[in-house]
Amino acid sequence: MAPLRVLIADDNPVVRAGLAALLATADIEVVAEASDGREALHLTRRHTPDVTLLDVRMPGVDGISALPHLVQLAPVLMLTYSQESEIVREALLLGAGGYLVHGEFTPDHLVAAVRDVGAGRAHFSPTAASAVLTELRASSHPQRTVGQSSERLPNHAVFGLSSREEEIMGLIASGMSNQQIAASCFISEKTVKNHINRIFAKLQTATRSEAIARWLGTARPGVAGHG
Questions:
Q1: What is the pLDDT of residue 227?
Q2: pTM of the model
Q3: Are the CB atoms for 58 and 10 separated by under 8 Å?
């Protein structure tokens, strides 16, 4: 198999060099490095990487501004110090396939995340997963708007998910793999896959990142993010 090809976009050259050195040990080729979003977009078009690693805060064009353009060209893994739930949510809305916070992952976790995002599987580090869960729980509970007598339906009612499907969707949003979900729910991986297929059908999505965005209320109907 040809090595996975990635582009690193980060304004810190030391961070870029460190990431490139880590990925090289896992037969992942860094085809280009960018210092801001504009350069990342130019180099992504030029080198067509399999995955783009993108920082949030960079001078000039930042990562969030560049993200909707980059995801049209390759899957994007956010790799940043920014851990605010609003930024995690916005990154998902704009199509990011994963979100890692510096200091929360080992070299092996980084490699796994790059491979997962390249294959269309969502991947989050603990703080990002917690931010997703916070948004998930907030959006899953009925909320009464001031001056209105009606309550917003919880997500499972909106999408028609069963209690088991709602539980599994929550685990997906936390960044768990199928194997981890199976162990947590005491069911087989095949059963997990069957549940996920039904969840994706009900949410009208094709990938984990799209499903998470729709579940959290960040994806508009008919508009899917890049898996």
A1: 35
A2: 0.63
A3: yes
